[in-house]
């Protein structure tokens, strides 16, 4: 069995490597999206704190 035969995955290469690709893409994108939501939540909390301190 050659290296190229192993990469072929018994004629399921498109499915296997496509699945790996989609999984890798999700693992890269998810932390970026989470960081964006965290920043947005922090800005909202800071804005609410400013509003609350201005009322007093």
Keywords, separated by commas or semicolons:
2 helices; 56 residues; rod-shaped; single chain
Please provide a written account of the structure.
The model has no long low-confidence stretch (mean pLDDT 91). 88% of the residues lie in helices and 0% in strands. The chain contains 2 helices and no strands. By secondary structure, the protein is mainly α. The termini are far apart. The longest helix has 43 residues, at 13-55. The chain has a domain at 20-56.
Alpha-carbon distance between the termini? 76 Å
The count of β-strands is 0
Radius of gyration over C-alpha positions, nearest whole angstrom: 23 Å
- The succession of helices and strands, N to C, reads HH
Q: Number of helix segments?
A: 2
Gross geometry: rod-shaped
Based on secondary structure, the structural category is: mainly alpha
Write down the overall mean pLDDT. 91
The fraction of residues assigned to DSSP E strands is under 5%
Q: Percentage of helical residues?
A: over 70%
Largest sheet: none
Poorly predicted residue ranges: none
